[in-house]
């Protein structure tokens, strides 16, 4: 694996896993008033479209990274909608 | 431009612009306690590495999308650090 691919993989791991601490914090505190609802609404649509794009061009890394990100972003969106 | 490229472009526009409402809300309210600091710390590193990846493979859409996202995510991180 070349250095450029390694940089891309670390980038994908960071941007995907970054949402996990927010899911944990929002789940534990049930306090989400400082979180922007429009941000997560648009983010979920965007990540879903990245997932569709990954399926259309048949690239497993894009499918995997965006599938996990979609699950995490949807979790934050649901907690936000429930807790306000 | 084919349909697959259009899907990818709309995806990039959504995931990039999604952070703007959060910047505006956090800037206006100065209230960021519900926002996860580790999320934005890891996200900023990840988006920066995507930007480096875009430069290394010389792809303008990756450079542009991640350059804008980096500026927005850094803004949220700075407000979070300042306002706690």
Could you describe the 3D structure shown?
2 copies of one chain form a homodimer. With 84 residues, chain A is mainly α. Chain A has a single domain, classed as Up-down Bundle (Monooxygenase), CATH 1.20.1280.290. Chain A is 83% helix and 0% strand. Chain A has 4 helices and no strands. Chain A starts with a helix and ends with a helix. The model of chain A has no long low-confidence stretch (mean pLDDT 96). The A-B interface holds A 4, 7-8, 10-22, 24-26, 29, 31-40, 42-43, 45-47, 49-50, 52-53, 56-57 and B 4, 7-8, 10-22, 24-26, 29, 31-40, 42-43, 45-47, 49-50, 52-53, 56-57.
Count of alpha and pi helical runs of chain A: 4
Give the C-alpha Rg of chain A: 14 Å
State the end-to-end CA separation of chain A. 45 Å
Overall tally of structural domains of chain A: 1
Largest sheet of chain A: none
Using a beta-carbon cutoff below 8 angstroms, give the protein chain pair with the largest interface and the number of residues from each chain: A-B, 41 and 41 residues
> Which class do the helix and strand fractions of chain A yield?
mainly alpha
How big a fraction of the residues of chain A is strand? Answer: under 5%
SSE string of chain A, helices as H and strands as E: HHHH
| Shape designation of chain A | elongated
Describe the oligomeric state of these chains in a short phrase: homodimer
Number of strands of chain A: 0
Average pLDDT figure of chain A: 96
**Helical content band of chain A:** over 70%
CATH class of chain A: Mainly Alpha
* CATH topology type of chain A: Monooxygenase
Low-confidence region ranges of chain A: none
The CATH architecture category of chain A equals Up-down Bundle
